[in-house]
Amino acid sequence: MPRFMTVSDPTPVAGGGLLSRRAFLQGAIVLGAGAAVSAEAADAHLTAALPSQKTLGRPFSGYGVPSRFEADVKRSIVPRYGAMAPGNGVSFTPLEFLQGIVTPAGLHFERHHNGVPDIDPAEHTLTVHGLVERPLRFGIDQLLRYPMTSRTMFIECSGNSARIAGTETPKLSCGQIHGLVSCSEWTGVTVRTLLEEAGVKPDARWVVAEGADAATLARSIPLSKMLDDAVLALYQNGERLRPEQGYPLRLVLPGWEGNMSIKWLHRLKLVDMPGQFRDETSHYTDLQPDGKALQFTFPMDVKSVITRLSPGWILQGAGLYEVSGLAWSGHGRIAAVEVSGDGGRTWAEAELREPVLSQCLTAFRVPWQWNGAPVALMSRARDERGHVQPRRADWMKAHGPNQRYHYNAVQAWRIDARGGIENAPL
Amino acid sequence: MPRFMTVSDPTPVAGGGLLSRRAFLQGAIVLGAGAAVSAEAADAHLTAALPSQKTLGRPFSGYGVPSRFEADVKRSIVPRYGAMAPGNGVSFTPLEFLQGIVTPAGLHFERHHNGVPDIDPAEHTLTVHGLVERPLRFGIDQLLRYPMTSRTMFIECSGNSARIAGTETPKLSCGQIHGLVSCSEWTGVTVRTLLEEAGVKPDARWVVAEGADAATLARSIPLSKMLDDAVLALYQNGERLRPEQGYPLRLVLPGWEGNMSIKWLHRLKLVDMPGQFRDETSHYTDLQPDGKALQFTFPMDVKSVITRLSPGWILQGAGLYEVSGLAWSGHGRIAAVEVSGDGGRTWAEAELREPVLSQCLTAFRVPWQWNGAPVALMSRARDERGHVQPRRADWMKAHGPNQRYHYNAVQAWRIDARGGIENAPL
């Protein structure tokens, strides 16, 4: 049990024990989680060599992997159609195990429709054709010569959080619900550079991007977005793309639904009308309560989730905790994140951790004094364009129970008196 | 061969063909690296399915790894004493293969003195003792409960670039020379938090940090640094530390020589005088021309290196190229990077890529029009405190040929008429 725990200002700023975001910033934080030992015991313990100090460690490695004690930290795989289509499904990033805004490349979520192709970059090309002055073809080695841009950005599947978008309230982890969002430092060539080289014809309005995978996944993208900030990514988190993220070439559309950031990209065709492909008609459209569906709803809306103190964490009794999580918006920067400890009646403003980047995961944190009674923790984000995360009931009312894309409602985690945490449909 | 290549402003701003850093930012960049194809050929090529579109891809994975076509991108391992001490040596980050400021965790450089211990986090503790009011012991689970801080920061070995600090001019890659620097998003608990909980006695001036590895590596660190910005890192690039980076707990001292960022940290002992350990007396001291050695030279100085267009890259003839690289300083933010294409007579200012963070790798780039003649490319960084990278001759004069730590002189890459690149002692 903790011996003592204090912060510089223990006055709650909202119900349920939420403290000022500055309480952890100013001077003494005494959590009291450390065990007291006598000076003699401390010295004695440290004089005797540990087993790891008596054994030669393992040698150097060309490419490192995580500790064997972290084997549980992996993507959670959910096939979409079972054994019938083994390459169709998703794998979720285990958000509850992670800290910081960069997702390790090995844990970036996956959504494939027909598996991960094994592409030799020496054989791969990108063709730019259709309504252009000069159709062009680029090898990967040629693309590597172009000026590069880097941005740390999230990619979120349009179907992220769909497991709770209906009336079900499954008891899953934070990552299993919301882990179809990940964030990387993407580096590559701007689409604009190649389109200008090819010469855009005046009647071009859309660009069809197509993947070289067995699903031949294709989407229609407004030309304006392609000229604005679209990137042909060659690198992810410093190294070349991972195969499951589109190696050797991925289109990345900042802030827009992940399905459009075409992996294994092999062509950009400029056209005057959208192609009406499978993934922009029968899928990735937003069914409304009146039975009509919205098409081409591209940006991912403002969203946040508490990751630390989420299902799987077990609180060790009443006391001081840090509540932290991630917020993001496809519309721009996060302006604020608020946290509630009383079911949404009152809210405390969380601290946003630098850097706060546009269309990028943003970390937030707030100190919380738990009195040991059952409570629900929620977070609500607002972006610089004024979008605010809706409460779950409001989202359901607006979209109905059959709409599973673009779910961005406030997530509540219910904490019971024993310190267990689970998904609550508040 | 390129068909045509233009930028918005092709006027050189410095000798050797260096262009304005804005030449790539304003409007049309036409590198002309793409191959022209007829509209008919483009369409025909794209109608026939590719092999990867006819084969079901591989299934989902719990933890991803790089493409098999990237197997050459690995750390370069150099044993220090050969078979006599297999756990003693270094492995270098392959900087020439990377883009962006984050180093993939699997490619972070290593420097071990007795191998990588295999530590069970459930058995590992951190003891804070010595000149404190209350000696304390923390398990990893306890530390995970504390407020966390995140910062993207470089760690550089004090012996980085030592292979060229003498009079030798080995023909090595950029990473094999300068790859004992890497950069990660480190997340953990501030040292200050635990020291305040333990209560620092008035006569404490230094803190001895010791690792639980077979080298029992220990260093003495000024208390002021520990209270200022030292972090007990639990996470690296989002996930828990890699074993070779100190799993489960590493001390990270922003901007200071990497040897002091003690891995596998198991104790902090507050003392009144430095311990005069091996790695602060016979090693990691700076031998001067007069035979005396400087001790406790902690911060890593301002430095930069061109990574893209470095040994291993082969230029495909005269034309337009982007020159890019990394700069960093242990003293703070990078203020400017200049690039020379004429052996250091004239310099062009490079563009710094956002974000520019303190004590963090900073990416720079500059457009360069190569006329096909032999040339040497160099970069020179300046930090916000006014430190400037010295020329190699000046560094050698100041430190002499036997000083192998804290080498930060300007690196020149000589490009021959065939487009080959090698290390040049300019």
Task: Give an account of the 3D structure.
Two copies of one chain form a homodimer. Chain A is mainly β. Chain A contains six helices and 27 strands. The first copy, chain A, is 9% helix and 31% strand. The mean pLDDT of chain A is 93. In chain A, the strands form seven sheets. Chain A has a five-stranded mixed β-sheet with strand order 8-7-16-11-12. In chain A, strands 9, 10, 13, 14 and 15 form a five-stranded antiparallel β-sheet that branches. Among the domains of chain A are: 164 residues, Alpha-Beta Complex (Sulfite Oxidase, Chain A, domain 2), CATH 3.90.420.10; 122 residues, Sandwich (Immunoglobulin-like), CATH 2.60.40.650. Chain A is globular, with a radius of gyration of 24 Å. At the A-B interface, strand 3, helix 1, strand 5, strand 7 and strand 8 of A face strand 3, helix 1, helix 2, strand 5 and strand 7 of B.
Characteristic key phrases:
homodimer; 426 residues; mainly beta; Sulfite Oxidase, Chain A, domain 2; Immunoglobulin-like; 5-stranded mixed β-sheet; 5-stranded antiparallel β-sheet; 6 helices; globular
